[in-house]
Automatic annotation (TrEMBL):
Pfam families: ADH_N, ADH_zinc_N. Its cofactor is Zn(2+). SUPFAM superfamilies: GroES-like, NAD(P)-binding Rossmann-fold domains. Gene3D superfamilies: Medium-chain alcohol dehydrogenases, catalytic domain (3.90.180.10), NAD(P)-binding Rossmann-like Domain (3.40.50.720). CDD domains: FDH_like_1. This is Zinc-dependent alcohol dehydrogenase. Belongs to the zinc-containing alcohol dehydrogenase family.
Length: 389
């Protein structure tokens, strides 16, 4: 089959690789019909996530048709259409039983590696480094889906791929980012990052009752898409974000702040950017956490900072004094996608949300290398790319 493979920094290549086969009785093989490139794939592309190896198949957002099931998968049959969540979860461990699927205790065969970096291991993830299991991803014609009796959700034939594909990651991730804010009617929420996850966080915050949602970015086209979801745009290259948020909230600050940016944030002050960029390049810190620092400083006293942007390791100059003295709550997590699939599918079916509004480009899988380059460099107003194998 053909698959999009990580071949080193800034290099992906669509290569001919062996077809996946059933390895465990709870596996299924899915013929991928749609897959997408995620902002978090860029952290791999840019070489900032450790433990990638040449030839690793990328992709954690995919859906398709079941073509084979293991003997213990009774919930799926050949021919079913499914969306596959990005965290791989067994459904039986303590974390899974508590709905914390991205913390599954049984799905990362390289747990020891992750423990060295993070203390304990999260779940395995498709196409996202050996530290997170070394699982081949879904930017391919076929994918092996472990614990197929737990993760994939069946999709009725009348819903097109583009409306449901993002259940695999970015829609539930944006939703969970807003959910972690404990939004009450009248709340003002600020979202750093007007990429697709930020755009979904904006839409979710309104669905949860927020009064105002402000979205912060520097690309006008991304801010315009967030505006379509209802956001008030704030371009950090034009205004001082902390001042602007103070003005908007009568001096108090937003009730909750969502970091939908993560480890490769950009900073408008060249000296600040150069400082973290250099330390990151020298591996003295692994992140450029401007969005997170700003979200903490902006948040109102006693408010919540919700982190859904991806971080890999250690950060510098963390404003702990602000967090502690002002009684802030810091929350974060890889999305526990499995627990949001049914409720969000229902919202899509009822037309409360149509996630396809984030799509800007459609390409064949073979064009993945061009897609990564376009998405990374924000060429042609690239917001979200769907690949068809
Ligand atoms: Zn993703
Ligand atoms: Zn589990």
């Amino acid at each position: 089959m053909k698959a999009n493979c990580w071949m080193g920094r800034n290099t992906v290549e669509v290569r001919e690789v062996p077809d996946p086969v059933i390895l465990n009785s709870r596996d299924a093989i899915v013929r991928v019909t749609s897959t997408s490139i995620c902002g978090s794939d860029l952290h791999l592309y840019d070489g900032y996530m450790p433990t990638m190896e040449k030839g690793d198949i990328l992709g954690h957002e995919f859906m398709g048709e079941v073509v084979e099931v293991g003997s213990k998968v009774s919930t799926l049959k050949v021919g079913d259409r499914v969306v596959v969540p990005f965290p791989i979860a067994c459904g039986n461990c303590t974390s899974c039983e508590h709905g914390l699927y991205s913390l599954c205790e049984n799905s990362n065969p390289n747990a020891g590696l992750a423990e060295k970096f993070m203390g304990h291991t999260p779940s395995g993830v498709f196409g996202y480094s050996h530290m997170l299991g070394g699982y081949p991803g879904g930017q391919a014609q076929y994918a092996r889906v472990p614990f197929a009796d737990v993760g994939p959700i069946k999709i009725e034939d009348d819903l097109p791929d583009e409306k449901v594909l993002f259940l695999s990651d970015i829609l539930p991730t944006g939703w969970m980012g807003a959910e972690m804010c404990d939004i009450k009617p009248g709340d003002t929420i600020a979202v750093w990052g007007a990429g697709p996850v930020g755009q979904f966080a904006v839409a979710s915050a309104y669905l949860m009752g927020a009064e105002r949602v402000i979205c912060i970015d520097r690309f006008p086209y991304r801010l315009r898409t967030a505006e379509r979801a209802g956001a008030e745009p704030l371009n950090y290259q034009e205004v001082d974000v902390l001042d602007a948020l103070r003005d908007i909230t009568a001096g108090r600050g937003p009730d909750a702040c969502i970091d939908a940016v993560g480890m490769e944030a950009h900073h408008p002050v060249p000296a600040m950017y150069a400082y973290d960029r250099a330390k990151q390049a020298a591996r003295l810190e692994t992140e450029r956490p401007y969005a997170l620092r700003e979200a903490i400083l902006a948040c109102r006293n006693g408010g919540i900072v919700s982190v859904i942007g991806v971080y890999g390791g250690l950060i510098d100059k963390f404003p702990m004094g602000s967090l502690m003295n002002r009684s802030l709550t810091l929350r974060g997590g890889q999305c526990h996608v499995q627990r949001y699939l049914k409720p969000l599918l229902k919202k899509i079916r009822k037309d409360e949300i149509d996630p396809s509004f984030v799509i800007s480009h459609r390409m064949a899988l073979e064009d993945a290398p061009r897609g990564y380059e376009m998405f990374k460099n924000k060429m042609d107003d690239c917001n979200k790319i769907v690949l068809t194998p």
